[in-house]
Design brief:
Elements lengths: L31 E5 L6 H17 L3 E5 L6 H8 L7 E6 L1 H4 L1 H4 L10 E10 L1 E5 L8 H10 L2 E5 L5 H12 L4 E5 L3 H10 L4 E5 H9 L4 E5 L26 E8 L4 H15 L2 H9 L3 E5 L1 H22 L5
Parallel strand pairs: 1-2, 1-3, 6-7, 6-8
Antiparallel strand pairs: 3-10, 4-10, 4-11, 5-8, 5-9
Amino acid sequence: MNANALHLTLALFAATTAPWAAAQDSFPNKPVRFVNNFPAGGPSDLLARSVAAVLQDTLKQTFVVENKAGAAGNIGAADVAKSAPDGHTVLFGIDTVFTVNPYLYNNMTFKTADFRPVVVMASSGLLVGVHPGTGIKTLAGMIEAGKTKGLNFSSAGSGSPGHLAVEVIKEATPAKITHVPYRGNTPAVTAVLSGEVDGGVLATPGMLPHVQAGKITALAVTSRQRSRLAPELPTVGEAGLKALEQEVLYLVMAPAATPDAVVQTLQKHIIDALKRPDVQARMANLDLFYEGLTGALASQRIEALHTRYGPIVKATGMKVE
C-alpha cells in the first residue's frame, strides 16, 4: 500500500500532548468552517447547509459552508488537512477523496492518514440516464448500443463517482463508452439534455426533473436499494448487472490530531441534526439514506470502498484528465 493508502484507524490524542487541548471544553469558541470540496448546489453542499443551520442554532456559534472545489475534491481536502486540528475547520464531502483519489493522483499534497472520520452521515446511488434521441429504453439496450456503435457519457468530473461508474460499465460489459467529464453535476446533466453526450451517470436529484419531463430516459440506479424519489426504477442489480453497483458516502472528516472530545461533540450534534424531521425530509429529497456511522465502523466502511476501488481503477486504466 502506497503513501496515500487509507489508514483511518482512530488514534487517542491525550489532552496533555495536544496543543489545542486548552480549547476543548469550550468548543466551538469561534466560527466553524464546513469546507465542502465540491461545487455549490450539489447534494453534499445542500446537506452541509442543512446541518450547518441546525448546529448554528444548537451550539450557538456561526457555522459557515465554504465551497472549495477542484481536482476531484483534493483542493478542499488539502485546505482542511493543513488547518488547525481544533474542530473549527472540517471537511464535509464525499468518500472519493479517500477511496478513489489516492489511486488517481501521484502528487497529492495530503495523505488520507492526515484525517480522522467524524461521521459517515449518509449514502446514495447514482442514476443512469440517456437522451431520448438515442432510442435506448433499458440498461441492456444501453449496453447493446454501446457495443455496436459506442456512446459518450458525462460525469460530474474526472475522479467523480460517475466517472468511476462509467469505467466500471466499460470494464464489466462489452459496451464502448467514452467518458466526458464536466465541472459539476449541473453542466453534466445539461450535456445530456442538449444531446451533447448520449447519457450520464449522475446524482439522481439533478436528473429526475428532466426524467419526469420526458427529456431524459432513466434506465436504472446504481444503489443497492431503489431510489426513494423514483421507486419504479430498477437497481443495476435487479437489471442483472450487480457488478455495476456504486454508492457514494457523505461524510465529515477532521484533521487527524483533532482531540477526541471535540470530535465527539461534532458527532453528537451532527447525528442529532440528521435525525431531525426537516433534515430527514431534505435527505429524502436528495435521495440520501441515513448511515450515522462513527468511530471504527466509519473507518471500516470507508476503507472497504477504498479496497474495492483499487483493482477497478487499475483494471480500467482510469485516469484524471
